[in-house]
Prior knowledge:
2 domains, 6 strands, Rossmann fold, globular, Arc Repressor Mutant, subunit A, 11 helices
Amino acid sequence: xxxxxxxxxxxxxxxxxxxxxxxxxxxxxxxxxxxxxxxxxxxxxxxxxxxxxxxxxxxxxxxxxxxxxxxxxxxxxxxxxxxxxxxxxxxxxxxxxxxxxxxxxxxxxxxxxxxxxxxxxxxxxxxxxxxxxxxxxxxxxxxxxxxxxxxxxxxxxxxxxxxxxxxxxxxxxxxxxxxxxxxxxxxxxxxxxxxxxxxxxxxxxxxxxxxxxxxxxxxxx
Length: 221
């Protein structure tokens, strides 16, 4: 029995870009583009009627921008994965999008193979960032502080290290709880302890830190 197609909606104000993106996506046998919108208002309306599996959303659009559109999407379809596809390399835009629930942030200059794989990974439950954007977030971690955090990793319990591993993949607290057969509140406590022990401000920083040092700490992550 064939797997159901991944239904995609594109929201971008540039018609030529949408056409090119549609062409690239439908070359993949598991993808289908079920709708396009040139602005956030029409995009949200389209989502409510088409019920896609994932949305590819631009940030710089007229009327309501991508961030405002993301907020509206989270209100009408809170479980719908949204992949931001943008030219913005602004770390503040990235952090805001992630805080609003975006599952991915990919630059428009990314290779086609990276974008295709990003969609697949998001549909599998991961979060995906363009490598350049990860480096922007890493820059927020002061080198001296990073050394301290490396040392602080030894203070994490085995369970906290396991939770950190899932955070690095962008897995939600609810999904982590299911994977570890624990309550969501227990996972929240573990996350709070991780942030406190590593002196980090957010899950985003924890994910960046974990990914940055995954090769140096193969026995810990």
